[in-house]
Automatic annotation (TrEMBL):
CDD domains referenced in this protein's UniProt entry, alphabetically: OYE_like_FMN (cd02933)
UniProt family annotation: Belongs to the NADH:flavin oxidoreductase/NADH oxidase family.
Protein name: N-ethylmaleimide reductase
Domain of life: Bacteria
GO molecular function, one term: FMN binding
Domain NADH:flavin oxidoreductase/NADH oxidase N-terminal: 3-331
GO CC aspect terms: cytosol
Keyword Aminoacyl-tRNA synthetase attributed: no
InterPro entries, alphabetized: Aldolase_TIM, OxRdtase_FMN_N, Oye-like
Alphabetic keyword roster: Oxidoreductase
Cofactor(s) the record lists: FMN
Length: 356
């Protein structure tokens, strides 16, 4: 199987098997968190990807990250995203919106009323948050009450409705990298004693309720879920990730969603890889992500480990990455200093290949 071969993902036919991974770039309006015109330019430049997954997008005013991060919970934000999806579609591309809630990785200095962030349990993440007063340690969050959980699910449902209004082809639930959904999944961050904690099915309940809510908006063929079993940097972890993600895969298969997006770098030793088992349990499309290059992506598809491969950093610096990979052409080097710096530089001014 070639990465340049067309593929089916849920109810969509994609031009190739190269996915642009979700990449937060902090280029939205600082006040409204609505995408600015340069965001439409950025994504349309990269529309040759078989699928673009947007930057992680906040579903709630109570989930607030660095200045310039984007959101999808207001009418103004919907209008801003309409310009983005229109530009991508005009360029022949497909784009899903990634939806997330920070949970314990927010900070009171950024939240309305300086409220404590929420989490399944009152366990702080390791690391620091960017705040208006500078970088500060993540606080101990407030354990969310059982009665509050339906409203959190509803925030995701409304965000999906907004994404549909904005013209997205589908939505991806960010259940990875230590954010709220991931916090519920893993027993290192979820010590609840109610029906959202303890057993694997209980810890997966929050994710699956969100999936069911979003299916009611887009249908199963336009829903994806991103997971990161090997991510532990902020202190999150699980005592039995193989069992946890096997259950998640089985439940997602039962719902018939479009794809499972697995962050599993090629550097993970074969004995620890979960992709082979997840592919047995989940028969929708499997997207692999994690520092892949041309050779390792071709190898992963050739070995049958995935149906699509997502590229992140390479897409930052190479708007025409698909063509560069096709030609085995030299790649631009991403400038890390401009990843979150704001403005057009390091965002929409990376050069394209010459026509010939």
């Amino acid at each position: 199987m070639s990465i340049f071969q067309p593929g089916e993902l849920g109810s969509l036919a994609l031009a190739n098997r190269i996915v642009m991974a979700p990449l937060g770039r902090a280029r939205s309006d600082v006040r409204s968190r609505s995408p600015l015109p340069r965001v439409a330019t950025y994504y349309s430049q990269r529309a040759s990807a078989g699928l673009i997954v947007s930057e992680a997008t906040h579903v709630s005013p109570n989930s607030v990250s660095r200045p310039g991060g984007s959101a999808i919970h207001s009418a103004e934000q919907v209008e801003g995203w309409k310009a983005v999806t229109a530009a991508v579609h005009a360029a022949g591309g497909r784009i899903f919106q990634q939806l997330f809630h920070l949970g314990r990785k927010a900070h009171p200095a950024c939240l309305p009323g300086n409220a404590l962030p929420i989490a399944p349990s009152a366990i702080a993440a390791k690391g620091e948050a960017e705040t208006p007063e500078g970088v500060k340690p993540f606080p101990v969050p407030r354990a969310v009450e059982r009665a509050e959980i339906p409203a959190l699910v509803e925030e995701f449902r409304q965000a999906a409705r907004n994404a549909l209004l904005a013209g997205f082809d589908g939505v991806e639930i960010h259940a990875a990298n230590g954010y709220l959904v991931d916090q519920f999944l893993r027993d290192g961050s979820n010590r609840r004693r109610d029906d959202y904690g303890g057993s694997v099915p209980n810890r997966a309940r929050f994710l699956l309720e969100i999936v069911d809510a979003l299916i009611g908006v887009f249908g199963p063929g336009r829903i994806g879920v991103r997971i990161s079993p090997h991510f532990t940097l902020d202190g999150i972890g699980d005592s039995d990730p193989a069992a946890l993600y096997a259950h998640v895969a089985e439940q997602l298969q039962a719902r018939g969603i479009a794809y499972l997006h697995l962050i599993e770098p090629d550097s993970i030793e074969p004995a620890r890889r979960l992709a082979p088992r997840l592919r047995q349990l989940f028969r929708g499309a499997l997207i692999l992500a994690g520092e892949f290059d041309r050779a390792s992506a071709i190898r992963a598809l050739g070995q049958g480990r995935a149906d699509f491969v997502a590229f992140g950093r390479l897409f930052i610096a190479n708007p025409d990455l698909v063509e560069r990979l096709r030609r085995e052409a030299p790649l631009n080097t991403p400038g890390e200093a401009t990843f979150y710096s704001g403005g057009d530089h390091g965002y929409i001014n990376y050069p394209f290949l010459a026509a010939h």
